[in-house]
Every structure is written in structure tokens, then in C-alpha cells.
User: Fold AcrR family transcriptional regulator from Streptomyces murinus.
Amino acid sequence: MTPQTATPAYRRLSVEERRRQLLDAALTLFAHRAPEDVSLDDVAEAAGVSRPLVYRYFPGGKQQLYEAALGSAADELRQCFDEPRTGSPLARLTRALTRYLTFVDEHGTGFAALLRGGSVAETSRTTAIVDGVRRAAAEHILSHLGATDPGPRLRMTIRMWITAVEAASLIWLDEDKQPPAGELRDWLVDQFVAALSVTAARDEQTAALVGTLTRDGRD
Amino acid sequence: MTPQTATPAYRRLSVEERRRQLLDAALTLFAHRAPEDVSLDDVAEAAGVSRPLVYRYFPGGKQQLYEAALGSAADELRQCFDEPRTGSPLARLTRALTRYLTFVDEHGTGFAALLRGGSVAETSRTTAIVDGVRRAAAEHILSHLGATDPGPRLRMTIRMWITAVEAASLIWLDEDKQPPAGELRDWLVDQFVAALSVTAARDEQTAALVGTLTRDGRD
Assistant:
């Protein structure tokens, strides 16, 4: 037998590369099935590795793998909000929403299972990861709006809008991704401006921001 | 010893009365503590009965009691939306929101723990109970608006607003119930009109509804 050094059964990956490979396989599975319907066997098979190898990387089993995959998805989601400070604030929000909806589109089922709650894989730790992403989104938005010391009404408005965007994403997934992502995005941006405008009637800080948003337009 | 028939240690309650008494005691405890921090002993003590009695009514233990208490709270919440058809639709929404915020105020911690998710007491059954209340709220609103065959955009707008109201309630509890309930309520009604108005620009059915809302005013 000739040793086939050029194509080993398992290509040698670094620890970090292997971990990444397993998480990617898990995320792909979670994108199509609820967390409770994905086994470590499934992940091993999808990644083309043995079950013991998956256990070596995630000795805590399925729950640990799920939380690691969720943490990885959360990092990816945070990157959606990391928007360069060019163009008007509404143009930046539009770009961030485009990336966010692409993420929702790609992670479908896993995203929905997580936000819906009630999953057996859900714990206070997974809830904290999701809340962390929400907080990061709110901070990014306030920072892009130039609100360095946001009052309670402004903060409440932003957080309500973020929750409404999550709800819209879940409904969008349920309704076969209708309307098209671009239309949904523009409608969400309009909802953002409308929500701030309502608060502006009761809050000077928000009124000043809405003035700026209107002046800067969407380019 | 003289038998004290006038004040027995346990007043004889019917099965339904006893069940109601235990659920009320549980709901009061859940209003101040997270579900995982409430034991059957606590419920027995609060209701002034023995632990075995609590188990006789809820043989499934803590989880069964929690789900029954949740179901009872959900019924109470549904009654908040059961609004007579007098006055304009916005006046009815205002009255329903007043009752809803009273409920949130009274059920504080338990309400928050449930909506926040990640509670150890949360299962697909508890999630289904909460989703049922959301659906009921959406149906009530659409019915009061006279929308017998609501299209996807109108439905999405209503469901987004309901989620935003939940988020606002949680933030409100976090922020020592500021602003006062009446102000929060009026602001939420304004957000409702603003959200529908954004959708109206893209959807004829919603545009017709907004026209009616504006014409009918808030009395």
C-alpha cells in the first residue's frame, strides 16, 4: 500500500481551524433545524469527522456546541452593525439592515428557534448572548445618531424598534420571505423615522436628532 | 377542649375555590420572584396550607403549577383586550392599554421573567401560551379596526407593534415604571398610528384604515 500523504482522510487542521469547521457545520445544521433536532452525530457527519473528535472539541456535548455556535453567530451579527461612518445616518442604517437581513436569510431556522424561545437548548446563558447582541445594536445606532448621552425616552424608542425588527424578521421567515428583503428593509427604515418622530413630540433630545436625520436625507 | 367549628384551621373550599386560591398565591409569588426561585413550599406557606395539599392539586409539581398559573395569567391578560365596541377604535385601544399596563404593573417580575425567556420553567408549552396571547391581541385589534381579511403588511405592522409594546413594558419595569403609565400608554397609541401610517404609504388596505382612524379621532 502506498501512503497517500497528499490526500489524508483528515486534513490536518489547527485547533482553531478545526473548531471553526465544526462550528460552521453546526451553524449550517441549525439554519435548517431547531437546536433540539441537531445531534452531535449530525455535526460529525456534516463536517466529515468522527463523533469522538466533535466531543474532544466540545466535551460539554450538544449544549456546549450550541452555545459556541450561537456565540459565533452573535459575533457575525455584531459585524453587521459595524458600519463605516460615511453617508447619512439613514444610509448607514439601510446598509446595516441589508447585512442583517442577509444574515436572517442565511440562518433561517436556527435564528427563528432562538428568538422564539422555548427551545430546550435555551438557558439564561443563551438569552444573555442574544441580549448582548440587542444591546450592541442599540449602542451602534445611538452612536451613529451622535447621541452620546441618550435619555430614557430615546433609548426606549430605539430598543422598541430593534424588537420590532426582530418580530418582522420572524414573520418574514414564516411568510416565505415576502416582501422582498429590499422592500422590507426600506419599510423598517421608515418605521424607524416614524417611531423617533412620535418620541420627538415629547422629548427635546429626540426632536433635535429627528431634525438632523431629516436634514441629512438618505444618501 | 371545645371544638371551634366557627373557625376551622382549613376553611372547607370547593375544589375549584382551592385551586383558584393556590393559583392566586402562586401568581403573587411569581410577581416578585423569577419562576425558578419559587418553591411549592413557598406556595403552601403563602396560601396557608400544607405542602401535600399543593401536590394533590398539582401532582406534576412546580412545573405544572407554573404552567397553570401562567395559563390563568394569560386568561386575565386576554380579558384586558376584551373591549366593548363603543367609542372610536383609538379610544378602545387606549382603554385596553390602560388595563394591560395595570396587569404589567401588578405582575411585574413574573411577567418579565416569562417574556425575557431563558427561565428554567420555560418550555415549548409556556411559549405556546404566550404566543396565544399575542395572537389574541392581534386578532382583537384587527377586529376593532374592522379589518376582516387583513393582508400580510397590515398583519405584520400590528404584530410588530404588539412586540414593541412588550419591549416597552419590560423596559418600563426595569426603569422603575417611568414614565407614568398614562404617558406611556398615550405614547404607545401614537406609535401605533405612526406605524400604520408608514405601512399606509405602501398598502391600500392600511391606507383606508388610517383614513378611518384619523376621521374618528380618539373619543
